[in-house]
Structures are given as structure tokens and as C-alpha cells.
Amino acid sequence: MEKPINNRAWLLVAPVFLIVAFSAILPIMTVVNYSVQDTFGNNQFFWNGLGWFQELLDPSTELGGRFFAALWRNLAFSAIILAIEVPLGILVALSMPREGWKVAATLVVMALPLLIPWNVVGTIWQVFARADIGLLGYGLNWLGIDYNYTGDTLSAWITIVVMDVWHWTSLVALLCYAGLKSIPDAYYQAARIDGASRWAIFTTIQLPKMKRVLLIAVLLRFMDSFMIYTEPFVLTGGGPGNATTFLSIDLVKLALGQFDLGKAAAMSLVYNLIVLAVCWVFYTVMTNTGSERADRGEPA
């Protein structure tokens, strides 16, 4: 006789779910309300229907052109970040010690950049990259390199990318390190018996076993880089011009700088849908990967 399942434990977490749902639904309802209305101040709103969404998704309009320009900048930044941080994080994880006192010391050092608040990271690099007092800016100019992140688009992009790599590569490395530590020694013993090369061990044992961890790392880094705001805002303010004005920065400028609440609300909803769609894609890929491994009899 099967033992009946007791679901009363869910009652203990039900209040938490209700509080989270309440705190999440109210802001979304407010944003949805603003997205279908227009205002001329004095808390007077006028029905606009889907007008803001139509204008937002039309690249020929001022709002649409602004949105798509910021979207492509976001996508380009995320692609560059993933192309650098994922391989670099794997390389760092493979280089980290596996035993002894060096393990604890290495983990502490790797975790240090992750403990620094985002606004502090932007401030650190803002001072570090200045041409007059910053070590990086002064050193590059001393070498004859024309570097000015406040006036040159390429310099601004390089600075933001390097700043993000410095800040978040540790996360990818730590996740990959955890995946490597979970690989049983029996796999390595079998590889040594077969005389497998270092590259063969990486491609046939380590990389396949890290697949799920890498998917999580890519998901986390894509989401964070796609929603980045504080670091580039503190460092460049979205400049020079609009060169580093990502969606999050443009959204804040539209809502708080210009006080166009309807346009900002429509943009934020579309922004949120893009994030949810990408999360769903990654979740589907991770689920399918787990199912394929289970079908082959491998541990998930």
C-alpha cells in the first residue's frame, strides 16, 4: 500500500509566495496601465491603446529607432561578453588547483570581484581609466595610445568590456570549477590507461560533463549583461553620445529624464518579454540536455 502524499508542507511557504506575487504583480499592473495611456502632467492620463507599442516596434519612428539601436548595442555587448568570459572562465577553472591549501586561497581570490557592489565597480574603473590620474588611462597615453573613454567610442566600449570581464569572469570560472570537481576520478583513470592526450580529456570528458554548468553560466551572464545598467552608467553615462546607451540606461532616461511614462512603460514591457523569452529558451535547452543524459543512463 502506497503511503499517501502529504502536501500540507506547502502551507508553510504559501505566505512567501503570496508576498512575492503581491510585490511583483502590483508594479507590473502599474506599468501595463501606463503603457496604454499618455499623460501631460498633473496626474492626468489619456487612453492611447496600443499606440506606444506600435511606435516602439516600428524602426522608422523616433521611439522605435531609439529602441532598436539600444537593443542592438545590448545584443552586441552580450555577445562580446560571452565570447570572452566563457572560454576565459573555462581556462581559469582548468588552471585552478584541485587539492591542498591553495584551493581555499584561490577560491577566496576568485570570489573577491563578485563581492564588490556594481556602483563601486563603475567608480573604480572611472578613476582607473582617467587619462590624468588613472593608472590605466595615463599609462596608455604615455605609451602613445590615444585613449579617452569619455570622448572615443572604441575606448568606451573596450573599457566597459574589460571592466565586465574583470568583474564577472570569476563567476564563470567558479561554476566551471564546481563542474570539474564533480567528475569522478574513474574517468581520468580510464583516460590515462588509454593514453589520451590533455586535449582529448578536455573534449571527451571535461567539456561534456560541464555542459549543464556552462548552460547555467551562459544564462546568468547573458541575463546580467543584457540588463546591465549601473557599471556603464557610472563609467560613461551612456556616452560618448549614445555609444554605450544600453536598453536599461535608455529606459531610465526616457522615464525619469524625459518623464515619458507611457513610452517607458511600453519599452519596459517589451524589454521584460525579451528577457523571459531568452530564459525560456535556455530552460528548454537545459531540460532537453538533462533528458538526453538520462536516456543514456548518465547522471544529470
- How many individual helices? 13
Low-confidence stretches: none
Question: Helical proportion?
Answer: over 70%
The tally of structural domains comes to 1
Question: Topology of this structure?
Answer:
Layout: H1 10-35, E1 37-39, E2 45-47, H2 51-56, H3 62-95, H4 101-115, H5 118-128, H6 135-142, H7 153-181, H8 185-194, H9 198-209, H10 211-226, H11 230-235, H12 247-257, H13 261-295
Antiparallel strand pairs: 1-2
Helix pairs in contact: 1-13, 3-7, 3-10, 4-7, 7-10, 10-13, 12-13
Provide tags for this entry.
single chain; 300 residues; mainly alpha; MetI-like fold; 2 strands; 73% helix; globular
Tell me what you see in this structure:
The protein is mostly helical and 300 residues long. The chain has a single domain (62-295), classed as Orthogonal Bundle (MetI-like fold), CATH 1.10.3720.10. Helix content is 73%, strand content 2%. The protein has helices at 10-35, 51-56, 62-95, 101-115, 118-128, 135-142, 153-181, 185-194, 198-209, 211-226, 230-235, 247-257, 261-295; strands at 37-39, 45-47. The protein has a two-stranded antiparallel sheet. The longest helix is centred in the last third of the chain and has 35 residues, at 261-295.
